[in-house]
Amino acid sequence: MSTKRWILPLAAMLLLSACVSEARAQRLEGRVVEHTLDNGMRLILMERNAAPVVSAVIRYNVGSVDEEEGKTGLAHLYEHLAFRGTEVVGTLDYARETVLRSSIDSLESCRVRLVESGEGAHVEPVRGIEEQLEKMKAELEDILVVEELDQIYNLNGSVGLNATTTADFTTFMVDLPANRLPLWAILESDRMAHSVPRDLEAERSIVAKERRARIQDDPEAALYQQFLKTAFTVHPYRRPVPGWEGELESIDLEDVYAFYHGYYSPTNAVAAVVGDIDSEHVIALAESTFGRIPCRTVSCERAVPAEPKQREARAVVLERDTEPALFMGFHKPEITHPDDRVFEVMSRILTTGTRSRLYQSLFVQEQIAMDASSWLGPGDRYPNLLIIAARPIWPHTCEEVESAVWSELETLAREPVDGEELRRAKNRVSAEFLRKLQDNRGMADELSYYAISTGDWRNLERRVSRIESVGPEDIQRCAARYFIRENCTIARLVSTRREKGE
Predict the structure, then answer these.
(1) What is the value of pTM for the model shown?
(2) Distances 231 to 169, 357, 486, 487 between C-alpha atoms, Å
(3) CATH 3.30.830.10 given to domain 33-90+145-292
């Protein structure tokens, strides 16, 4: 036997052995402490004492799916406003700030009424009001401490202070020295209980600019927005997280406060802390900070409409002066459904790595597309999609790529996946997943995610074994059931540049 022929199988065995050893090393039962405060907030704690640092993640069970119609973008907007401070952070004198804001609002209303009355903008009463407004706004500016939350964290050695809003969740995170965990508990419990959404107009402008950059100025992002809107007819997964164009302008402070009080409750939050901690001390710390926040149920009742079964193929076309692109989506069950794990494996079989089916078919053999990718989305709490994306190579078209994709999907339904290909896909899923758990931030993020999305953080640990249980018959069954044309939505980005012959 040649050297190459025995080295490759040995390398594969060593890789598999490393994955199994790593999986065993990540066993969490007995290492994770779970505690629920009297007000309903859940704590998930894991001690890792390799370095004197901790990662802390607070995940709220609220995202863009929970917004009212006509107020889309509110979840993302509030995430931004949550960094503006509280009754203590961000101001030198909250009582005086409140008085000034009330007076400014009253004077602004009075000025508008005078101007609209036809008296003119330069009459003495209006000029006097504008002078008072200028003085009050200057005084207010002197009271406010811009970005004080960031400053406090930075001065205490923290890094990675951030937040993110998705269709399903809103998450706040930070990494900090272990001896600064009490500071985190004080700041975040204060933010949960006493948030003050200052400077709505400034944050609205920032969020609107982000939306333009992420959607309107990006042809593929604009196509993806239209794709989701077509794939989902009633479910709020059809909405973009930054909101529909123009709806941000309709959101006022009353909407913001209602959203905050409705969803930012201890009963709607999970905090995961991983690192150099003593779990008993962290529980006591949480009881003395977060535990003081009054218990209240989530007041905003979720009335998320179920998406009806798709019964015919759907398509949308977007024309832009850019290169062509394609999305194909297939409805599938939510994360807690047994078929979800099958889709994770199928996604790797189709598009992960140079040996994946669509890479080989579209790029190597037919040379009609420059790349292909797939993922599950846009959320996990509710039934979602397996999404396939590709970019045709000129002069090939989206229709040619679609045809090639359909050929591979039909093969999945018709022929069993061989053992080596299935093992390779499973190893990729497990390796990607285990890699996330190696650092404190990744572990805290995944613990909080599984606790909310599946109802039990232990499903994090069960994930590898569930992926391992996927067999060739599962692949065939799901491919035959879900990869059908009446369950498919297609979005094509058509290049006007190419049509002009440029």
Answers:
(1) 0.90
(2) 21, 25, 11, 9
(3) yes
